Amino acid sequence: MARAIKNHISDFAAILVLLVLSIAVAGYILSHERLRFPFIESSPFTMNAEFSTAQAVTPGQGQTVRVSGVQVGEISSVSLKNGIAIVQMEIDQKYKHMIHRDAYALLRPRTGLKDMFIELNPGSDNAPIAKPGYTIPVSNTLPDVNLDEVLSSLDSDTRAYLDQLVNGGGQGLKQNGGNQLAQVLERFEPTHRDLARLNGAVAQRGANLRRLVNSLQRLNTALETKQSQIVSLVDSSSRVFRAFANQNQNVSRAIGDLPSTLLQTQQTLAKVQTFARQLGPTATNLLPAARALPAANAALTALAKPSTPIIRDQIRPFVVAARPVVRNLRPASVNLAKATPNISKTFVVLNHLVNMLGFNPNGAGDQHSYLWWLAWLDHNARTVFSIQDANGDYRPLFLQASCATFAQIANSVAGSETLLNLTPILTNLNLCPKQAAADIRAYHQYQAGTLSPKAARGLAASDTSGSKGTSTTAAANTPAPTFLPQLPTK
Predict the structure, then answer these.
(1) Angle CA(427)–CA(429)–CA(434) in degrees, nearest 5?
(2) Using CA of residue 457, residue 463, residue 467, residue 470, what is the dihedral sign?
(3) Quick check: is 485 in a domain?
(4) Residues spanned by the domain of 50
(5) Residue 351 and residue 190 in contact, taking contact as beta carbons nearer than 8 Å
(6) Is the pTM of this model over 0.85?
(7) Residue 474 pLDDT > 50
(8) pLDDT in tens, 387-399
């Protein structure tokens, strides 16, 4: 055997090379056909997901499981249990630690041909890691919803009304409608400006309310800390009033001296009137701040102590590091300032659009604005492309024409009989009496052997009035030649 190999060493080497190449090609093909090689690749991590429906899910066709667009596994099998579709997924081992028990799955098509895949959200880090064989409940899954299911929920009248609405809107925009629409959009800026002002006022009111609540909280806290002092103030006031009661005689004497005192006081206050006018409101406004000042100082001290290392060790290095970024923001700010006028013009155009949509001529009830139809639009918009009914998936087609027109189409357009099936129409005496009578008369003459197929067709073409002889002029004014499906073509 060694001598034979030695004598045919070139053939033996070629066979070995072909064997190695075939093994390499087979391994490449099998690896791309999702075949896992034992002892080379680890077994996948298996988990399940419950779906209310698993339409178009075909295991073994390369349908994948993805997380944020990254493939983490494949769909391995599908089964039915208690009316719920159980989809088994094989997850790569390197991704098994990222899937938690609160994960949820969405069944989505990758292409328009319903090439499905599962979009998996791994869940939050607070939930425990999912174990092998874990099943995502149906409450955390959502199947693919077909467009025809959404559109078929609307009845035929609603679809017809929506069709009329869209066609009417198209006819309204057909002639100078685009220019009017652009003008409406240009008038949209005042509304936007007013809305911005309103939103700003609401935001300011919210900020003031937050400050008021904070101030009330601080005031209540300060009063709580000064409870003993308030009690002392009440007791002192009680003693003062009791002392006043005991000094009734002296108080009467003081009241007798009061007019002269008041006169002197009036003269004095007149001299300091200017100062008093300013001091009174100022002191009144400063009273709440003065009362809250001790509590504010205490709160500021409590805040300053823990915030000092934060400012020194975190905020200050951040400001130093962010300084180059702030310098680089200047060109972007300049470009934004240049784009602001265009944005304003855009909102003017949007304002014009809203004005046009809300325009109601004369306020009449028989002529509504475009906004009147928006209540229907949300309900009827999904029926624009609904084309499925009891007759099939094709939209019904209605053709209306005269018998002469159908006869001309049948004899001049190749294949029209196959597509339109005009024979029952043109040979019916109730629908097309002239064409049907001419066909029947020509066919009877053909059966009697007095006419050839070509002559019978010519006779049927020229004798659509029911008479046996017609002049050349009359034949020229007759409809296009009809056809005789009963006659042979040769």
Answers:
(1) 85
(2) negative
(3) no
(4) 45-145
(5) yes
(6) no
(7) no
(8) 555 555 455 556 6
Taking the C-alpha atoms of residue 123 and residue 132, their distance in angstroms, rounded to an integer, is 16
Kindly report, residue by residue over 18-36, the tens digit of the pLDDT: 888 888 887 777 665 555 6
- Mention every residue, 6+ apart, whose C-beta is less than 8 A from residue 302: none
Whether 211 has a pLDDT exceeding 80, the answer reads yes
One domain, residues 239 and 278: yes
Q: How many domains, the chain?
A: 4
Sheet containing 141-142: give its strands across: 135-136, 45-51, 84-91, 70-81, 64-67, 116-121, 104-109, 141-142
Looking at the predicted structure, is the pLDDT value of residue 313 above 70? yes
The Cα 354–Cα 395 span in angstroms is 35
The residues, ordered by sequence, that sit 6+ positions from 193 with a Cβ below 8 Å of its Cβ are: 347
**Distances, alpha carbon 417 to alpha carbons 235, 411, 428, 430, 463, in Å:** 114, 9, 15, 20, 21
Alpha carbon dihedral 149, 152, 154, 155, in 10-degree steps, equals -160
Confidence of residue 120 (pLDDT cuts 50, 70, 90): very high
Domain identity same for 212 and 268: yes
136 and 272 together in one domain:
no
Do residues 216 and 303 share a domain? Answer: yes
- Let me know whether 232 and 333 are in one domain: yes
- The residues, ordered by sequence, that sit 6+ positions from 435 with a Cβ below 8 Å of its Cβ are 403, 404, 407, 426, 427, 460, 464, 479, 482
Distance CA 178, CA 172 (A): 9
How many Å apart are CA 154 and CA 151, to the nearest integer?
A: 6
Task: Give mean pLDDT, residues 296-317.
Answer: 85
Q: Which residues pair with 65 in a beta bridge?
A: 73, 118
